[in-house]
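#lab-general

N.A. 3:47 PM
ok so I finally got the sequence cleaned up, no stray characters, all 182 residues accounted for. can someone with queue access submit it? mine expired

B.Y. 3:52 PM
send it over

N.A. 3:53 PM
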Amino acid sequence: MAVESGICDFGWPAPDFALKGTDGKLWRLADVRGPRGTLVMFICNHCPYVKSAIDRIVRDARELEGLGIRSVAIMPNDTDAYPEDDFDHMVAFSAAHQLPFPYLIDPTQQIARAYDAKCTPDFFGFDGELRLQYRGRIDVGGKNVVPGARRDLFEAMKLVAQTGSGPREQLPSLGCSVKWRG
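B.Y. 4:20 PM
back already:
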């Protein structure tokens, strides 16, 4: 069943984290913070919405890096119930898709709760001061690639990089629900 992300609470401060990445390092928010903004994404390995969008996510993250926006992805799901999302599978997923950003595991789900993550993918776009400016979709595609579709996430974060503010009109992301423990 598809779930929508929440709405953008403009100015909301990004919660800090300290999570293990697929590279074996411990990553904090300060380590991934970009000079013009930071994109925090909640994704997983098994979700068909993420699988469909991962190439677009990688493309956008690479292009945003050139605008001073850095990215990080966090896997929030219960890996006991969804073993396809466990750490070893995350390492393989990261390598297979050549993720240009840290891919972190949230084993206690505390960070996903702090961000109020609803679905995978769920995108949180912060300005250079780590204040929320975008919480919306990557594009209209959902589980499908729509040729020529407006790149909502990229355009929003480009605006953040240029002006410090996100667009007032935002459409929620659509994806699989976060798989919460018990």
